[in-house]
Amino acid sequence: MQASELRDVVYRANRRLAGTGLVVGTFGNVSAVDRAAGVLVIKPSGVPYDALTPEHMVPVSLETGEVVEGELRPSSDTPTHLELYRAFPSCGGIVHTHSEYATVFAQARQAIRCMGTTHADYFRGDVPVTRSLSQEEVERNYEKNTGLVIVEAFVGLDLSPSDMPAVLVANHGPFTWGADPFAAIEHAEILEYVAKIEWRARCLNADARRPAGYLLDKHYFRKHGPSAYYGQKDGS
Q: Which residues contact 30 (CB under 8 A, 6 or more apart)?
């Protein structure tokens, strides 16, 4: 993919994210990666979504983290995106938001439990929450360490980033990813929806029993994996 094409994709993805209602002000960002070219492109830091153009999008070296072209500074979350791309080879796009309900769970340091089939259609198991960062991790290389603590959580829980394309960073907010930035946005939208459902379910019955694993697996695998049969063969 040409650099101009990737910039256009990331521009459209950031505008799409703004249209979802998941971001307020300049919170949040979308990036996409071209692994063959060794570059990711991400939203510039602090620029309002309605002022963005494709030329504003910032290309960054996947290897060095340095800006490849242009004078704008990339999103301050770029080092987090870099660590996720490096650790999760199947990841083609990343989204970060401070969406209301998902952020509530992140601030409460509570995983979003998989309590039903709506959740299981997209996320295989509870959406995890990371540990809190230490003072040293915050004071030195904060954004990089945010990415590393996400990777640490997935390694510690033996989670596949393909099966679980979302995480809650403790006291911060959600990150989602996917095969491309638009898939990552879809996961961000669904994450917010299931967080809202889980919040309300806890209010209604905090002691509700978890559903059977075979039911959750059925819903996950009918949409994902080699035996999936949901939707059409062309992917629609």
A: 10, 13, 14, 16, 17, 42, 43, 93, 94, 95, 181, 184, 185
Buried b (16+ CB within 10 A) or exposed e, 14-46: bebbbebebbeebebbbbbbbeebebbbbbbee
Q: What is the set of active-site residues?
A: 121, 230
Determine contact, residues 84/146, Cβ cutoff 8 Å.
Answer: no
**Distance of alpha carbon 128 from alpha carbon 116, whole angstroms:** 16
* Proportion of the chain above pLDDT 90, given as a percent: 88
What six digits make up the tokens of 5? Answer: 């094409």
- Per-residue pLDDT reduced to its tens digit, 23-73: 988 889 999 999 999 999 999 999 999 999 999 999 999 999 999 988 899
Contacts of 7 (CB under 8 A, 6+ apart): 41, 54, 55, 57, 59
**Tokens of residue 151, six digits:** 């990777």
Residue 17: which pLDDT band, with cuts at 50, 70 and 90? very high
What's the rounded Cα separation, in Å, for the pair 21 and 100? 10
pLDDT given at position 25: 85
- CA–CA separation, 87 and 90 (whole Å): 9
**Tokens, residue 75:** 């999103």
What are the residues facing 120 on neighbouring strands?
none
